[in-house]
Design brief:
Layout lengths: L2 H4 L6 H7 L2 H8 L6 E3 L6 E5 L2 E5 L18 H15 L7 H6 L3 H8 L1 H10 L7 E5 L2 E5 L6 E3 L8 E2 L7 H15 L8 H13 L3 H17 L6 H16 L3 H18 L7 H21 L2 H4 L5 E17 L5 E9 L4 E9 L15 E2 L2 E2 L6 E10 L14 E5 L2 H11 L17 E3 L6 E5 L4 E8 L2 E8 L5 H13 L3 E11 L2 E12 L5 E5 L14 H12 L8 H19 L7 H13 L3 H12 L3 H21 L1
Antiparallel strand pairs: 1-2, 2-3, 4-5, 5-6, 6-7, 8-9, 8-13, 9-10, 11-12, 13-14, 15-19, 16-17, 17-18, 19-20, 20-21
Helix pairs in contact: 2-3, 3-4, 6-8, 7-8, 10-11, 10-13, 10-18, 10-21, 11-12, 12-13, 13-21, 18-19, 18-21, 19-20, 20-21
Keywords: Metal-binding, Zinc, Zinc-finger
GO molecular function: zinc ion binding
Protein name: SWIM-type domain-containing protein
Amino acid sequence: MTDWLQGWGAWDDEALAALTSKGLVRRAAKAVADARLHNVQGDSAVVETGGFAVTIGPRGPAAASCPCPAAGVCVHILTAAMLARSAALDDAEATDPLEDLLSIEPSAWCREAGAAAVRTALASSPEPEGAELTQVDGRLRIAWPGADPVTYAPGQGLAGMSSPAPRSRWSALHLEAVARAFIASGRRWDWPQRFLEEAKSRAEEDRPVALLGRVRSWLGSIVEDGLADLGPSSLASLTELRTELRAARLPRLAGMLGTTVGHLEALSRRDDGTDDATVLESIARAWALSVAVEDSFPDALTGRSADTSGGELELFVLGATWWESGSGSRGVDVALWDPASSRSLTTTVGRAAGQDPTFTRSLDTVQLWGLPVRALLGHLVRIPQARLRPDGSVAPTAVERAVPQRRITLDELATIGAHTAFADLTADPFGGGRGGPILLRPDERGTLTIDEPRQAVLWSVPSGEATLTLRAPALRANRGRLERIQDLVEFGRPIEAIVAVPRVHRNVMGWDPVAVFVNGSRGTLRAVSLDFEGAVAATRRNRWLSRGLDRLAAAGAAPGPTSAVDRLVRDVLELAADLAVRGVGRSAPGERCTRLAARADDLALATLASSLRALAEEPGGESLVRVVLVTLMVRELAWLAS
């Protein structure tokens, strides 16, 4: 027997199924008894099966050829592989797969993989770490965290490798596996020099420090010259910067800058829903992100797509929330629960301003993993090849369509509720998420009241020995959801669970109810996302809530601070907004800043005090933005403490 034929002994049914499918492997196995192997030469052999002559060689099934009309690895090639495997196993001597892999030089592996695969593998593992190496049935298994395991059959190079990953990723993934196997075996692995130089050049291009400096310069000039004097040319320049940020692969900062432009445009139109403080906060957060990104360009801050394969995931879809940004973007946030890892996950489906007019506020038009969101709510959903993002969210698209398995059960709701009862809230200087959703199991439907000073609807829900007060902002965009909550509380059936997300409104951080689980027909649980639909039929009776919301909209009540820290935060932000409107470069805030710094010292807020003194000594856009950022963090930490 020739040496190359021994490599076919490692192609078991699992490895062959990775090339095609389990069903095709079963069909091929039935034809092995009638197949014939002949004309075995130094680099090829012929297998007669099903009326076709299949030519095989040292490169494995993927490189075999069959004259039948089927594309790719057909059933005849699988039959030939099984017959060659049987012939190889009859041979007394077997090749060690690790020794065979290490006998090929790194440069040869890279040549076989091709330039595109080398670039991808180098980006994924510029300095390869080791891997777990095991031998099973004549094959080498290479595994490391965060990736699909790769198997290698000796004597066939990359063609002798297989994995559960999508075929489009095989070349790069398998080349990375080879590199890791070298390192794990104590051998040296060197990427080709020209690809290292390309990667270095790309890294420099991916760190557009000068562009980030221009972003900060423009944001600083806006508050230095004054929001009152902002003209169309400045807005046009910021819009151009946003385009450049997207081209530089900084989508998160581009999105924040787009939101800032939207707020500035609304302010210039005298939009009642936008005030000076909101605009200044948006500017400060974008400025802070531009500084943080410049330090190391991590994916979580840049927003660059660096999705990793999470393999197959089964997730509970708990609820969906509609949102719209100041720039005109809109989308849906979906709350998920991973029962295998007992963790909260999220995914977001969105569209930029002016894009895709079919993307509307409807559970039937918003698509997630190839299906309408309505088909997924309240179900355990299997995602065959899920992709996880650096920020812990799940990518809203997948290689294969999601498959709803079944509806969630009461016991599973209880388990999720027990885990999320201790959910942490976190402060984020860039205005991002403050923690995952919670799931509350209420004892009864509870009661509703209106918090007029804070402009919110309070939903007091008894649960166990405690009563949790959920806080839904009384915003115009939330009007439909609030009225659906009233219908549910006053006229609905018992509520099995409430899904709430952390949200800040009117300087108060609270849990905003976005979805409920109620008993549906035939005893099943029905998930209802209140931004889109009601749990009961709408009613016109007893519309006290609508009248109360009308009063709030007309009054525009403002809350009063309740603590010394709240009062200091209010006064500092009022000073900052006043300076930003008039132009900090044209003002002399020294005395006011000094008084506020003394109050900060009295409250042991040393960082805020030093920032205020720096603003008093050198008034400018950067020093003003720093004061705003520190004040926002003080406010966030005060919320968390309360």
